[in-house]
Amino acid sequence: MDVLSRNNVSVSGADDAPSMLFAHGFGCDKGMWRHVAPAFEPSHRVVLFDHVGAGHSDLSAYDPDRYSSLQGYALDAVEIVEALDLAPVVFVGHSVSAMIGALAAADRPELFARLVLVGPSPRYIDDDGYRGGFSQQEIDELLETMDGNYLGWSQHIAPVIMGVPDRPELGEELAGSFCRTDPAIARRFARTTFLSDNRSDLPRVTTPSLVLQCRNDVIAPMEVGQYVHQQLPDSHLVVLDATGHCPNLSAPDQVVEAMQRYLAA
Amino acid sequence: MSAGWDAVPAGLLTLDRDGTLTEANATFLSWVGRPREDVVGRVRLSELLSVGGRIYWETHLGPLLLVERRLDEVAVELRGVDERLPVLLTAVAEDDGTVHVVLSSARERSRYERELRAARESAERSAAQVEALQLVTAALSRAVGVSAVAQALLDAAVRTLGASAAALWLPDGTGALQPHGARGELSAELPRAAAVLHERTAVELDGRVVVPLHGSNHLRGVLIATPRSEAGSDPLDVEVLTAVGQQAGLALDRAGLYEQNADVARELQHSLLAVDPPADPRFTVAAAYRPGVEALEVGGDWYDVFLADTGLLSVVVGDVVGRGLGAASAMGQLRSAVRAVSGPRTGPAALLTHLDRFVGQVEAAGMATLAYAELDLDSGEVTYACAGHPPPLLVRATGAAALLWEGRSTPLGAFASPGDRHEATLQLAAGDRLLLYTDGLIERRDRSLDDGLELLRATAAELAGLPIADAVRELTTRLLQDEVGRDDVCVLLVGWDSTGFERHVSADLTGLSRMRHDLAGWLEDSGVDSRTGRDVVLATSEAVANAAEHGSDRSPDRHVRVRARLERHRGSSRGDAGGDGDPGSDGGTVVVEVHDGGRWRTPTASPERGRGLQIMGALVDDVVVESADGTTVVLRRSLPGVER
Amino acid sequence: MTVETVRDDVVRVLRASGELDAAVAPPLLDQVGDWVRGARAVVLDLADVAFFDSSGVRLVDRFSRECGRAGASLRVVAPPGGVARQVLEIVGMAGPLVDDDLDAAVAALSA
Q1: pLDDT tens sequence across B562-581
Q2: Which residues of A are known catalytic residues?
């Protein structure tokens, strides 16, 4: 299986420069980095990819056993790094991909120069003495909501752009497929994401890391970001003045600036 | 806002780029049960959704709205005062980030969709369950024997049923459950609570699933399956495991019965094939039996070697149609029938006719084939017949080998009438051999019968110089090199060693002492006690001396031929036993024939001659003088309790 | 087959050894006269004979005749169970002539 087509890998930016690998999180696809990645093209070799099951990845490569744990996704990331010879790479992971990157770096530290963790959470469900933000029941509700929108979902993933006259450039790029994903795979990805517990993996990450935490993130609240920062052996925490869980889309300038400052240091 | 805005029976909202409500109509506020001042300018839309909806908004819908500037008919739930309200949401974003939202109630639609979804999920789940069950049932039914069923079940548990590990316990002879294999890491122990094992269904216990395997009457085993531990893995399906447990219980029932049957059949066949051939220096026989490669049941091939009469050896190889107990039983009956019917006056063709009548009564023996031959141990003449069976092979001592195509007729009982049964005769020379076998030796799916026969013929010819036991072994090995998909094989090789003892003494008697020594040795090798042996040697020496003197005038150009053989009699239950000795006792007779080319006249009144006869007469039981082509003196001395 | 004179004083003891059969007997028959000449008492010791048949009987017969002609007494030693004894008994010659061993034969001759 060709890794590059399996994960719909795209490469841009400078050739003889350090590499930067962007990993989207739960929900949508590599399009999430549309406003962040271009900023690093002058200075880095920029690599974007879709997790198997999302975007234009090869859905037939989806193996429920491999991807029933985040380790499966971490292995994919390592394979991409090795296939393109990106090491030592700056790994930028959003949401659950932050943990995916952390797992990969814990196992293969020699491949990773830096980690940028956007809205990370090692565990979403509350535990004794730990606030992840959700209860098991609420995660079940999420799955129900996703199931409910499966019936209506097809309208969103229809490959037709409806009335975006102001943004004609989006026409070719998107092909109306942003956030397109296979519902069954999405459901399993949701379970894998929200039922995982990788708290014990954080102390294993020796790679220098930047934690970007949104001030008002329901999915990965402030306490979780602080927890991650405390558990990582070598990390910086930057709180972004942004709302929601996707600062890479809703506040991309802040994300770029925080990253540039960190990487320059 | 105009009154119409508030009166619209849909929720109308405006959001800023952060998602905070800047305007909301009365309908919306009544749905969420909050006053305007609590919400407008204070709360983001996602906070008013159910938790699942909120996560969905933050991870999917929000980004979609940012990128595509539209959301169409998304189903989410608003958090109302006491309940949740399903709504369909459509939104459009402007350049500056302002978002216009309309929410329409989807309560009825939602109920309808939910039912549809539940029905489809149920159907999909059923389909998946059925498929899994079909796969597992197929694997179980292919497995033969308890071990194979156990392996199939364990494999199915981890491969088809999604377990990360599985362990199996089966009852031993006393009924106590013993470990019988596992897959994956497993540190499970059998649950103490016997109650669990008496459940008819699979039961979840301590994070594992205990599946009792009930046969029709007994608990046939217990399977314990461990679910996978990864976050995104599916739990074990207890319903499917229950169904699998039932199937496995029945499969173990069948496997247990099968093994019992197979054991009985194998024992039966073993006892039937255990042939104790008669021992006689005039012939040597060796046989081989190789069960079929893929067959798990006893086959229908058999052979037999016995004396049909004194000096008449019967050899037979047969093939009963079918496998298993039925075939084994028919084989035994056929074998007994052959022994019962054969006799000095019957002959192969008549034997087959008798057998035709026999198989008329024993259905399982119908269409059986066999090759039967009678060998006259003194003359080396063979009479044979072949009922639908591959042709016997004649292997001369010189190494020439030829298939015997005469004496052929149809399989037993195949509408044959007495006139259809043929036999043929041929003459063996000392050292010649006869090979009987079953079709498993020569038939292969990918090879013509002619090629198989030719291979047999050529190989047997090559091995003609080996001792018979070695020849049979080597022949079987070579022809069965391709152990692929073949039937049972039975091979019998009999060689005629002529008289056992034969010497020529020149009539000048220079070899007389030597002959005595050789004869004494042969008698000892044949198990004759030394006292009897001494007497026989003496009598023979006398006979030879007489023959030399009176038959050949002691001429060095003439010879006296001495032949000796040992006839063994077995206590026989056959009514038409024509042999000597009491029925039911074992014994033997040494028979010596001294032959010269002259005519031995009845003794003149010379005392020496008389003494010679007197001595012979005292030492053996019987002295018979035959005059044909010269004179043969036949001495017979019976043996006390000869060793078999 | 050999015949050896092992003693020749009051009694002449002739010991036969080897196999005595029709092949070897004829030349021996002609020598009997020589073996017996000049003896007053003859013992033919057949204890060492390995084979003995009707030609052996014939030899004993010849001994008997020659001894009679020479006026010598004759005893034949043929131990019980031996080959010579068996045959001599069959032909009925054991009684008058045969002794179990050499001492008995010599004693019989002295009597």
Answers
A1: 888 876 554 333 333 344 44
A2: 95, 217, 245
Chains B+C touching (3+ CB pairs under 8 Å): yes
- Cβ atoms within 10 Å, residue A167: 14
A146 touches chain B (CB under 8 A): yes
Which residue ranges make up each domain of chain A? 3-123+198-264
Which residues of chain B does A27 touch, with a Cβ-Cβ cutoff of 8 Å? 58-60, 63
- Number of Cβ pairs < 8 A linking chain A and chain B: 151
Q: Per-residue pLDDT for B314 more than 90?
A: yes
Q: Are strands C73-77 and C98-99 parallel, antiparallel or unpaired?
A: parallel
Confidence of residue B1 (pLDDT cuts 50, 70, 90): low
| Confidence class for position A178, pLDDT limits 50, 70, 90 | low
C-beta atoms of B608 and C21 within 8 A: no
Mutate to test the interface with B, among A156, A173, A177, A191 (most CBs of B within 10 A): A156
Sign for the CA dihedral angle at A151, A156, A157, A163 comes to positive
Mean pLDDT of chain B: 83
Give the architecture (CATH level 2) of A3-123+198-264: 3-Layer(aba) Sandwich (3.40)
Rg (CA), chain C: 12
Q: How far is CA B127 from CA A158, B68, B123, B512, in A?
A: 28, 38, 6, 96
- Contacts of residue C58 in chain B, CB cutoff 8 Å? 608, 611
B459 close to B491: Cβ distance less than 8 angstroms: no
Is A31's Cβ below 8 Å from some Cβ in B?
yes
Tell me which residue of B143, B159, B169, B123 sits closest to B247, measured CA to CA. B143
Cβ-Cβ contacts under 8 Å, B549 against chain C: 22
- DSSP letter at B390 equals P
Q: Where are the beta strands (DSSP E) in B215-282?
A: 219-227
This model of the complex carries an ipTM of 0.91
Question: What is the residue-wise DSSP string for B104-127?
Answer: EE-HHHHHHHHHHHHHHHHHHHHH
pLDDT number for residue C45: 94
| DSSP reduced 3-state for B128 | helix
B271 falls in which pLDDT band (50, 70, 90)? low
Which residue from B514, B545, B554 is spatially nearest to B608, judged by alpha carbons?
B545
